[in-house]
Design a protein that fits this description.
This protein has 14 helices and eight strands. With about 400 residues, it is of the alpha+beta class. The chain folds into three domains: about 80 residues, Integrase, DNA-binding domain (Double Stranded RNA Binding Domain), CATH 3.30.160.390; about 80 residues; about 190 residues, Intergrase catalytic core (hpI Integrase, Chain A).
Length: about 400
């Protein structure tokens, strides 16, 4: 919102549940930012993701801030970036809110969770000048988390997020050196325990899905009979061989393609080539940002054909946000424990390796950028290691 900032306007800008900004009509680029904490700051912005806090309300007048903002904006116009050195060093929190966060929101598909994690995990460093944040600060953080029982892999993920922030800070010359450079990641078991379904568990899951669909078809038939007696509009009939809803096709397509849940929710019917039996995972919504092509086996193709007939008119194949409740209910009915939705992806990869598919092909199907992510399935290859050791006795 653009207004001419004045003491009265500033005083009337009451805090809200989320931060908001007012743009000065006299000096485009000068902003008043109001935090939920009631803190009000003056900010100068000279481009998308390019901004800096230049003062606080109560310590500086609007006219002082206009003068300062004009100097910085002229400097930025002449040099591309402000070169005025006589300014207070930004804190980690200021750099995060004013530079890194807008950049991540504009460029990173998975920005929400990463930004939230940075705010939560490193809030204790937000008041520290960016240039004074050190490797020792992060080592203390690591030790405190490990001592509290946090898994090393989780700590590494948080470090990866803050590393990205400081990489941008170095690139944008906000700091001279990266404080995490040289700080080693915590050692973790890269192989880990891969959870996949046994043959009996897979059969139980399929049986539970079929039973659920049958109940939903019967419920729909009974509901329409009740509505017909009262001359109410009938609900769409579920075909005798149809799915009760999205859950069964989502599970079975996942088991046969290894797609991530985020990819599954984004694919559209235009991504399915029935003639070539091929599914395109577009780079715009793939985690890696790279387009990949998944061959569809007979079961996956039949499921999509059948589901297409039940979802006419929708562009997205599975336009559903959450399946947690129905998924948990099916697992309970199948008596399957400690199995997450993401483990369907592990199940897909594990079955391929068990049937002799080479790891690089599995890597390509999963969309892993690095074979290291796929190595975790290597122990499932039938007899490879046993055959290698057996050669010693030959």
């Amino acid at each position: 919102m653009r207004v001419k900032l004045s003491p009265t306007i500033i005083a009337r800008a009451k805090p809200r549940s989320t931060p908001f900004e007012l743009s000065d009509a006299d000096v485009p680029g000068l902003l008043l930012r109001v935090q939920p904490s009631s803190v009000k700051s003056f900010i100068v912005s000279w481009g998308r993701g390019r901004r800096k806090t230049i003062g606080r309300v109560g310590k500086h007048t609007v006219e002082q801030m206009r003068v300062k903002a004009r100097k910085i904006l002229l400097d930025a116009e002449e040099h591309g970036e402000p070169t005025i050195a006589a300014r207070r060093s930004a804190t980690l929190g200021e750099f995060f809110r004013e530079h890194y966060k807008p950049h991540a929101e504009a460029n990173h598909k998975d920005h929400f969770g990463n930004l939230k994690a940075i705010e939560t995990e490193f809030a204790h460093l937000f008041d520290k000048p960016l240039a004074l944040v050190s490797a020792f600060d992060f080592e203390k953080y690591r030790l405190s988390k490990l001592k509290a029982g946090v898994k090393p892999a989780t700590v590494n993920r948080h470090f990866d997020r803050i590393r990205s922030l400081f990489a941008r800070a170095v690139e944008w010359k906000a700091v001279a050196t990266h404080p995490l450079r040289g700080l080693k990641r915590s050692k973790v078991d890269r192989m880990g325990v891969v959870r996949f379904l046994s043959n009996a568990e897979e059969a139980a899951l399929r049986k539970a899905l079929t039973a659920r669909d049958e109940r939903m078809r019967l419920d729909r038939t009974n509901a329409n009979a009740w509505r017909a007696e009262r001359s109410y509009e009938l609900l769409p009939e579920i075909p005798d061989d149809g799915f009760g809803d999205h859950l069964t096709p989502m599970v079975l397509v996942s088991m046969n393609t290894g797609m991530r849940r985020g990819e599954l929710r984004k694919i559209c019917w235009g991504d399915v080539d029935v003639q070539e039996a091929m599914l395109t995972i577009r780079g715009g919504y793939a985690k890696s940002g790279q387009t990949r092509y998944l061959p569809l086996n007979v079961e996956a193709l039949d499921i999509l054909r059948q589901w297409r007939g039940q979802s006419a008119g929708a562009d997205a194949i599975f336009p559903i946000l959450r399946v947690d409740k129905s998924w948990k209910a099916v697992l309970k009915a199948a008596k399957i424990e400690r199995f997450r939705w993401h483990d369907l992806r592990h199940h897909f990869a594990s079955r391929l390796v068990q049937r002799g598919v080479d790891l690089n092909t599995v890597r390509e199907l999963l969309g892993h950028a690095d074979i290291k992510m796929t190595i975790r399935y290597s122990h499932l290859a039938p007899g490879d290691k046993a055959a290698a050791v057996a050669r010693l006795a030959a």
